[in-house]
Fold each of these.
Amino acid sequence: MGLRWWRNFCVVLAGVLLFFHGFCYSEKAPNYSFLQEASHAPPDLYYDYIIVGGGTAGCAMAATLSQNATVLVLERGGSPYGNPKITNLDSFFANILDNSPLSPSQFFISEDGVFNTRARVLGGGTALNAGFYSRASSDYVRSAGWEERLVEESYEWVEKKLVFRPPMLQWQSAVRDGLLEAGVLPYNGFTYDHLYGTKVGGTIFDHQDHRHTAADLLEYANPRNILVLLHATVEKIEFRLQGGSKPVAMGVIFKDEAGTRHSAYRKDSKSEIISSAGAIGSPQLLMLSGIGPEAHLKAHGIPIILDQPMVGQGMADNPMNALPIPSPRPVENSLIQVVGITTFGSFIEAASGSDIIRSWLRRPLEQSFNASEKAMKAVMTAALRGGVILEKIDGPISTGHLNLRSADPEDTPYVTFNYFKEPEDLRRCVDGMRTIIEVINSKSFSDFRFPDIPVQALIDLMVNAPVNLRPRHVSAAISLEHFCMDTVMTIWHYHGGCHVGRVVEPDYRVIGVDGLRVVDGSTFNGAPGTNPQATVMMLGRYVGEKILGQR
C-alpha cells in the first residue's frame, strides 16, 4: 500500500513539475528573447529542425517541436509586433495595400490578371487576413487521412491562444438574418465547426479590435530550444548526392537583410528541414533547390536534384466576387464574422464600415492604367459608407500552375490559377451571386440599403470598376456568368503546388528525397472550409506532434 502510494505521488509530482517547468520558461509576445535579425546570426548554424517560413503553419510547428528538440525558424519578413497597420482592424486594407520594401504584404498580379498579395512577415497570412476562424469540415478531415482526435486537440491548442467571439453588431446581424431569409438554413449560432447553413464564426481580432497572429503561438515554445531569424531569405536547400540512393537534404543557404550569406545544417540523421513557406514559397523553394520539372529548371540554369514534374502544378485560388452596398445609415467597421455555407458550393461573407470600404477598391483603381481620377472618386464615394457582401466558391475545381520568373528567391513566380476554367466553378459563383442579391433584397437588410438604388446599379458599378486587369465582355445586359468572369478577385486563399500524393507523402515527406518535408497550404488539394487559416495552424501543430512522437 505504501509503495503504491509513493508511486502515485511521484507521478503526480512529475506532472506538476513538468507543468511549472513549461509555465516558468514560456515567454509572452512580443517579448520573445529568441527573436532576432538574421544579420546577427553566425555563418553556420546546426539545429534538429530547420523551418523555412515563420508563417501560419511554421509558427505552430516550431512551437511544438521546440518542446523536445532544437528549432531554427527562417522568416524572410519582419516582426508583426509594433506595427499598427497589422494590429488594428481599421487598418486592414492599409496593411494589404502597403507596397513599401519592408511591407508585410508583397503585391503581385497573377497571369489571370487578378491583383493578389503574399505574406512577408512572421505570422504569415494571419498578419494580413480578415481574421475569420472556421474549421475544416469533418469530411475534409477524413479525406485528408488525419487522425480526428489529434486534429481536435490541435484546433483547441490554437483556439486557446488567439481566437475570440466577434461582437456581432448591426450590419453583421442584418447580413446574418438576410442569409436566413434567403434560405441558407439552418442557423447554427456561434461555432467553429463547418456546418451547412448560417453561422457566426471565430475571429483572431480581440474585443479591442486588435489582431492576434500565428506568431502568438510561439508563446507555447521552449525559449531555450528555439531561434527565430527575421529577414532571412532562403535561397536554396543543399543536398548530399549518393550514387543509387535518394538525395538527402543537408542544410539551407540563406541571406540576411544586408545580403550576407549564412548556412544552417541538420544536426544529425534524425534532423529534418521543413518548408513552410506557403503555397507560392514552397514550390518555388523546391524548384530553386533543383526539385521540379527538369526542362523548366534547366532553362533557369538550376542543377537538377530530382526531376519532379508535379511541383508547381495544381495551383488553385478560390475566386471571389462581390457587391458593394452603400448604406443610408452609419455602419460599424467589421471584417468577416458571419458566413452562409450553402449546399451548392458557395460561401457568403460580408465586411462593413467607412475605413474598411474606403480602401476596398483603392489598389485595383490605382493599378489600372485606365482609371481616371473621376472614376476613382465616383467608386470611392459610393462605397464610403456601407459594406460589401461577397461570395467565394468551394474547392475550386479549376487549377493552374506555377513557374519560376527567375532564379532569384525574391522574385514572385508566374502563377496561373485558371479561374472558372471548369463550368462547375462558374455555376457555383452564379448561384452565390443570386443568394447575395436575395440578401440585399431581404426585409432584414432593408435598413442598410437605399431603396431607390436597384441591385442592377450595384452590378453595373462593379462591372465598370477596374477591379482586375481581365478583358470585359461587351454586352448591353451583362449576365451573372459574365459578371463572375469579369469581376473576379481573390480572397487570398490560394493553395496547391506540392500536393499530397504527388509531391509529398501523407506524412508530408517530399517524395524521392530524404530529410525534407513540406507542411503548409501548398499540400492542400482543396481549400479547407470557408477560410483556411484555422486548418493551416492546426496542421502545423498536428505534424509537429506526429514528428515528436517518432523521435
Note: The longest strand covers residues 233-240.
Amino acid sequence: MASKLLKIAPLEAQNQIELSLRQAFELLEPQLRPPFLLTIPTPEEYSQLNRAILYGVLCEPHFAKIQIKYLHAVVTDGYCFFVNLLTTIVDELYSKLVKSARIQLISLVSEMIYVSAVGIDGLLASLLRQIVGGDFSDGNLWLCFELVSLFLCKWNWLVEEEPQVLRNGLYTYLRVLSDHCRFPGDSKLEALRRIEIEFCIKVLREQFHLCLRIGRDLIRLLQDLVHVPEFRAVWKDLVLNPGEFKTQEFEDISQLYRRRTSSRYFILRITQEMESQLRFLLTHVKLGSQKRHQAWFLRKFLSGSERETLIIDIVRFICCGHHPSNDIIQSDVIPRWAVIGWLLKSCRKSYVEANVKLALFYDWLFFDERIDNIMNVEPAMLLMVNSIPKYVAMTHTLLEFLLLLVDNFDSERKDIIVKGVASSFGMLARKGVVGSIHVLTSCDALSPPLKEWLGRFLKAGVSTESQQVHLPDPSVPSFNLPSSTTLETQTVIVGELTASKCTPNDGVGTKAFDSSVPILVEPVTSYSSLVVNSENLEDAIENLVHRFVETIRKSNTIDIQILEKMLLSFANLDGRKVTGDFALSLQPLSSKIAKELDLNGHKLFSPLESIPNISNCDDVVHSATALIIRTFIFSQHERLLEMLLSWSRHGFPVGKCLLSYVLRLAYEAHVAGNVMLPDNSIKANDLGMPFLFLHMDEYFSFLNGGRKDSPEADLSTAKMDHQLVANLVDGAFSAYRCFLMYSRNSLDKAADVTPARLLFSDLGYCSKWEKQILKFSFCSIFYYLSDLSTGEEDIIKLLVTLLDEADIVLMQFEIGVKKFSIFGENTETIFYLIKDSLNWGLLEQHKVWGLIRSELAVSMVQVEKLILEFFCSDNLDPNSASIAVEGLLMLCSCRIPTPELVGAIMLLPTTAFQDFSAAVLATWAVSNSSVLFDSLANFLEKLGNEKGDLFTSSGIRINHSAISWLLSYFNTQGMKDNDILSKLSVSILDMKSMLQL
C-alpha cells in the first residue's frame, strides 16, 4: 500500500509513526466529518483523535480547514499533544514527507502560532534545524523562504510571546546567508536572499537587546557577511557607533566577546539525524574502527559540492554541544579531537578550512574561566598535541593560525584576545588536559620561528593575564556554584521555609499561617553537589536533558537521578545571571520532560485513585511525579513552583497529585506516630512505611548535598524523631498551600477561582481512597489547611457524602477535644451553610448536624444569633427544615441557658415549629433550672426596661409556646403567674390578649 504521507523506497520497512497516525485516522475517520461529536474524550481517545486529525490534515488538504476547526473544538491541553506530534514528525520524518504534506505542515505551524499553542517554540526550532547549510536544492530553499516569510508575518507575536524564536531565526539565517550570498548572480536565490536580509536586519536594528543574548558567535557570523552592504553598515555601527542600536546595556563590541554562546545555537545548525549520527560516532565507535562510519557520514551529509560549509557548524557543535562523560573520555572510543582532525582534512576549499579553524579556536580568543567551559577549548589543544608524532603539519598550521588570530582578529582589543588565549593555555595545563605547554614549545618537529613566536606570546600572555584588563562591566558574574552545606549549617530546612508554624488558635488545634506564602528566590544551596560543577549551568542542564531523553528512549526507564539533577540545576539558575542564552527556559524544559515521559508510556502527574499497599507501592514512590513533588517540597523554590504552575496550566492535575502526596505522607506519619515509643526507640525501617521512609531519606540527602553516606541519611539504623516527622509534614502542607495560592494568581481573574475551590477540586480525586484514610485526610485538611477549608460548604458537603456514620462519630470526638474546627466561628458563614444544607440529602443533613452539634457545643459561636436568623427566615418549609430544627434543638439542650440564648428562644416568631421554644425551655428546666430562671428573670427585666416598645403592633412578640409552657410550668409547680410576670409593666390578661390566647 502506497503511503500518502511519506516517500518510501520499495523495500523500506513501514514507518511506525506513520502507521500509528494512519491507524488512528482509519479508526476515527467518520468522526472527522460533520456533524462532529462534541463529547469529552478520555485521555486515550483524545490522543487518538489528535493523531487522526493530524494525519487527515497532512494527507487530505481539501478537508484540512474542517478538521482544524474540529481540533479547536476538542482541544483540552493547549494543543500540547498535537504540537508534540508535529515536532516528532519534523524531527524524524521531515526529509521523507511528500511535497503536499510539507505544505500542509507549514500551514499547521502557522495555525499553531495563531492560537499560541504550547510548545510552538520547540516546533519552530525543529523546523529551523531542517534548513541544511550548503544545500541549494529546491526543497531546502523552499523551506528557507517559507519560514522566514512566516517569521516576518508573525513578527509582533514573536517579539511579544516567543523572542527566543527570533534569536534562533537570526542565528540560522545569518549562517545560511553566508552560503546564499556567495552566488550573487543566481536569480533563483535573489528573492530568497532579499527576504532573508530583510529579516536579519530587522532583528538586528529593532531588537538588538535580544541579539545580545546570542553571544560572541553573533560576531563570527556577521564577519562572514561584512561584504554585503546591509551588514557592512551594521558592522560599522557595532564597532564605531554602538549607540545606534539604542540598547542601554550595549556599549562596546567587547561585551559580546565576553558572552558565551549557548550550545543550543550550534545544535540548530545540524539536523536531528546528523546530530544522532555524530553522537553515535563519539560515544560508541572505537578508535581504529571509525573509517567506514566516517565514509558513510561523508556520503550521507557532505557529498554535495557546496555541503562542505556544514563542517564549520559540525566543528562548533562538537566543541561546544557535545561534552562526553569521563567514562567515554577514558575509554577507547574515538575522541572529539580525532573527528575534528578528520573533518579538517576533508576540507577542499581554503576559505572553508579557514572558517573551520576559526570555529575550532573561537572560544580560545575570549576564554574566561568564570563563564567558559574547558571542554570547549580542549579538542583544539589535543588535536595539536596528538598530531605531533605523525601529522606535525596539522599542528603547525593550527598553531600558526591561532597566533595569527591573536595578532589580527581585533587589533584594537588585542589585550582581550591575548588574555583569552593565555587563559586557555593555562587552564588546559592546570587541569591536566596536557602535561605542559612545553610539549609544543620544545617540539623539534615544529619550525624554530613558530616556536619562538609561541614563546614570545606565552611570555607576553602571562604578563597580560597577571594584569587587570579594563572592560565595560560584564553582565555575567562568576558561575562558581555554592558548596555543599552540612546538616548543622543548613538554613533551608523544612518547617522553616515558610511562616507556617504549629501554634494554637483560640484553643482549637489548627495551623496558623502567613497569607503572603514566601517563596525562595535564592539558589538551592543544599543540593549543590548534584549540579555539574565542570560546566556552567546552561550547558549542564542541556546535557542532562539529552541524557534523560536518551536513557528513556533506549531503555524505557526513567533515570531519577538525572531528572533530580536537572530540576535542582534549573532552580539554581535563578540565583545567577546566565551567559549568552539558555536553550531550555521554563516552558521548553517542562514541555520536554512531559513529552518524553508521555511518549515512552510514563504518565506524569497521575493522581492516586487509592493508596497502594507496601507490596505494590514502588511504582508510585519512585515515580517521576513523586520526585518532582519531593524536590519542590524540600526547596519550595520559585523556579520549581513556576514549572509546576506551567504544567498545571497545560492540563496536568498537578494540584491533585501534590495533595495526594502530602496526604499520604501525613497518613504514614500519623500511623508511625501511633506505634513510636516515647523514647523514639523504633527504627525507621521497622515501621513498614515506605513512603515516609523514602521521603525522610531524600530529605537527609537534600540537606547533605545529595550524599547518602551521612549518619543522618542512614535510616536503616536511625531512630525516628517525632519532631522531625512533624516538621516534614508541616513543610509538605506548606508547599501545597503555596502552590494553591500561586495557582489562584496564575489563573484567569474572571474565573473567580479561590484557593479553597482549588482545594475542593483536588480533594475530589481522593474520593476512592479507603474510608479510614479518607477520614484522616479530611481531618488533616481542617488541621493543616484550616484557612482554606473551615466553613467551606463544598468541602463539608464532600466530607458528609463520602464518610459513613462511624467515621463521622470519630470526627465528632476529635472536634469535641478541639483538635480542629470544621465550621469556624463566623456566625454568618455557619448560618448560610445551615440554610444551604436544607437542600442536601437526608443522610447528609443528619451527618452534618452531628458535626455542628459537636463543634458548637464547645465553641464560642453565638448560637442565639443562629437560631434567630434561622427561624426568622422567609418560607421556612417544615419538611425540608425538620432535620435542621432537630439539630438546633439538640444543640440548645447541650448549651447553658445564658440570658442571650434564653432571650432569643423567648423572642422566636411563631412559625411552623411553634413548639420549638417550649421544648427548649422544658429541656433546660430539667438540666439547668436555676440558670434558666436566672436568665429568664434577666430577660424579663430587660423587657420591662423597654416599656411597651416590644408590644407595639410593629414590635417583636414573645413566642406563644414559650409563654404557654411557662404558665403551665408555674401552675404545675404551684407558683402564681404574677410572681414571675410581675417584672413586666403589663398584666397577665393584657399579655394573653396580646398573645391572642
Note: The CA atoms of residues 511 and 784 lie 5 Å apart.
